[in-house]
Amino acid sequence: MSESPSPSPLSEQYTINTALLNQHPHELFRRYRPVTPLLRRDDGIYIGIRARDVEALTTDPRTLQLETQIARARGVTDGPLLQFLENTMLLSNGVQHRRRRVPLVWAFAFNSVTALRPQIRALAEHLIDTHYHRGEMDFIADFANWLPARVISAILGVPEVDIPDFTRRVYSLARALSSSFSEADVPHLQKVAGELTAYVRDLLDERRLHPREDFLSSYVAALQVSEQLSPVEALTQIITVLLAGSDTTRGALAIQTSLLLEHREQWDAVCRDSALIPGAVLECLRYEPSVGSFARVTVDDIPLHGTLLPRGHVVSLSTLAAMRDPALYADPDRFDIRRTHARRHLAFGGGVHRCLGETLAKIELEEGLRALTRRLPTLELDGGPAVVQGSGGIRLVKDLRVRWARGAA
Length: 409
Ligand code: HEM
Description:
The chain has helices at residues 18-23, 25-32, 51-58, 69-73, 79-87, 94-105, 110-114, 117-132, 139-144, 146-156, 163-173, 186-209, 215-226, 231-244, 247-262, 264-272, 277-287, 319-322, 358-375; strands at residues 8-9, 15-16, 38-41, 46-48, 63-64, 136-138, 293-298, 302-304, 307-309, 314-318, 380-381, 387-389, 396-398, 401-403.
């Protein structure tokens, strides 16, 4: 980031209509990236659109997590929703953030999660078995919905009978993590936050009374020893993991399937050679990420290439724009599963809030793709490609129907 002695306020010509941006994010970012490091949405939120700035601002001490700023602006002043937003690691800063994140780090570390790969593979194959005879499916409702939900339910030990209700609540409340929720959504989000809080509290109480050999029992035991987290903080981190790992991965599964089927020769290449799977997953996360940005608030003026990012404002760090920046990827608008990616892929953010579930997400995406290409190589779109809405936060992915020739399993 080059600093200028007297940076200029962002010119009015760079204020963007949010609805237009949500419809055509790549086109608008491609147009503006060479001429300005920042855009400003018509709701006043700044957007960082260049790769090097997004990376630098993620760890810049002049930016902080939002805490409850956006929630309060949407009229959330009490209730279980505020309790969640006040206590989640995702929105907290400094020591509080560390305290909340550290007890979970071991559980989501590479070695712990890699041990789950065979189980995740079996879950993905089982989902295909369930629908195979039909020769077609609603990809999101029948497959993408269930792989992350079943994986996280297995990790938490959610009883089979509770999974559908539990999953519905998790997907509903996941909207609270996206700054795009509106005041009208608040009553429903409050209700679901209350239900999930009660459910997770019961799960934790149950493990306290009857410990098992599982993730939640170890979490409860570790918390009892360290006594670092209040009961509300402890259960909020479990809800955070549930929410952060649901819509993100569901969307990414649908996007990757759609993108590969739209680029048929690359789908066929993965069917022939499963060694291409990890690269295909990384390229789909880059080309059309399910999380388009994450937000921070500025606590000081930040000069960016002669333009002022003023203190006290929300800035959306657009990973979606950054991962199509020619400064980061050559020929960025070309979809190519064989390209090389940095070890720390920007789709998962950076700095202290970097995605806790990165390894788990990659394994789910890889095993989902492995099962589909192995069992359904004739898979094709049954209609248009997936519709991806929104330019930032967790994006809404919908409408993906697929079909296959039976007998190919
Ligand atoms: C394709 C799937 C996923 C994507 C693209 C993704 C992306 C991200 C990003 C960009 C952040 C940083 C947010 C910020 O800095 O404000 C993040 C944080 C987080 N993610 Fe993920 N994520 C995915 C899947 C998962 C999964 C499967 C889990 C857990 C099971 C998970 C758990 C978390 C948690 C707990 C945080 C907050 C970390 C903190 O604040 O310290 N994510 N994720």
